[in-house]
Amino acid sequence: MSILRVQGVSKSFKDFRALQDVSFSLEEGDNLAIIGESGSGKTTLAKMLMGLIEPDTGSIMTQGRLQMVFQDPYNSLDPLWSVQEILKEALWPGPVDQLRMEKILEAVGLSPEVLSRFPHEFSGGERQRIAIARSLLASPKVLILDEAVSALDTLVQKQIMNLLRKLKQDFNLTYIFISHNLRLVRQFSDKIIVIYEGKIVEQGEIKAVLHSPLHPYTRELMQAAFYSKMGKE
Q1: Within the chain, what is the greatest distance between any pair of CA atoms?
Q2: What span, in angstroms and rounded, lies between the C-alpha atoms of 49 and 129?
Q3: Fold of 1-65+143-150+174-233
Q4: Interatomic CA distance for residues 195 and 21, integer angstroms
Q5: Mean per-residue pLDDT for 36-42?
Q6: What angle do CA 129, 150, 138 make, to 5 degrees?
Q7: What does pTM read for this prediction?
């Protein structure tokens, strides 16, 4: 069942074409990776999916709510708000459900005791857990993860990725994982879209695409990921 369908979407900012004729669909339960270098149009696409900006042409149809977890856990949480106030934002304008907030915090590996604390009192990984909790409180069908672990060190990245796998099962989530890190998404996603200069140049099952990449840019990404890995071994 398609819960998101993007058809012929394009977006320009003055003379810069950020996206051109982008089309894809998302099925319930997918782990979709959208990969490309900085400036390729990934974040512009994410903002359009969230309704933060409108496409110039094309259409976006959704079934169910989408929420986003942003890249930088240091800037995505208001430093003047307590965790409780941050989580309340996801429930506005509805009633505050204290018990639900506590259960969501426990689901992301945090104690309800953190509700009275402020963002500066937490590590980067803990802040990202708070950001994930805020998104879950809005009862999304789709969670967009925009470079959601790229600002974290390798060990914390692994912990957050393991958490996301668990939450997918517990909350019946569908993921869109936006990244420039091919090695990371290869371990996490089952489908992939490769964006280059605002266009989708390749898409499909991740194993098939990475086993037999058709576009030179996809092959370049694979080579860069391989040599980066070799350089650390």
Answers
A1: 52
A2: 22
A3: Rossmann fold (3.40.50)
A4: 11
A5: 90
A6: 35
A7: 0.92
Quickly list DSSP for 8-44: EEEEEETTEEEEEEEEEEEETT-EEEEE--TTSSHHH
pLDDT, position 48: 96
The answer for residues whose C-beta is within 8 angstroms of residue 39's C-beta and 6 or more apart is none
**Alpha carbons 77 and 86: distance in angstroms, whole number:** 7
CA angle 11, 14, 18 (to 5 degrees): 35
The whole-angstrom separation of Cα 233 and Cα 173 is 35
| Tens-digit pLDDT profile for residues 136-188 | 999 999 999 998 888 889 899 999 999 999 999 999 999 999 988 888 888 88
> Angle at the Cα of 126 (from 190 to 82), degrees rounded to 5?
125
Tokens of 198: 């605002």
CA–CA dist 214, 17 (Å, integer):
24
Per residue in 86-129, pLDDT (tens digit) is: 999 888 887 888 999 999 999 999 999 999 999 999 999 999 99
The answer to whether the Cα torsion of 169, 171, 176, 178 is positive or negative is negative
- Residue with tokens 């089309």, as numbered in its chain: 23
Distance in angstroms (rounded) separating the CA atoms of residues 38 and 180: 7
Report d(CA 67, CA 12) in Å as an integer. 24
What gap in Å lies between CA 132 and CA 107, rounded to an integer?
A: 10
**N-terminal to C-terminal alpha carbon distance within the chain:** 42
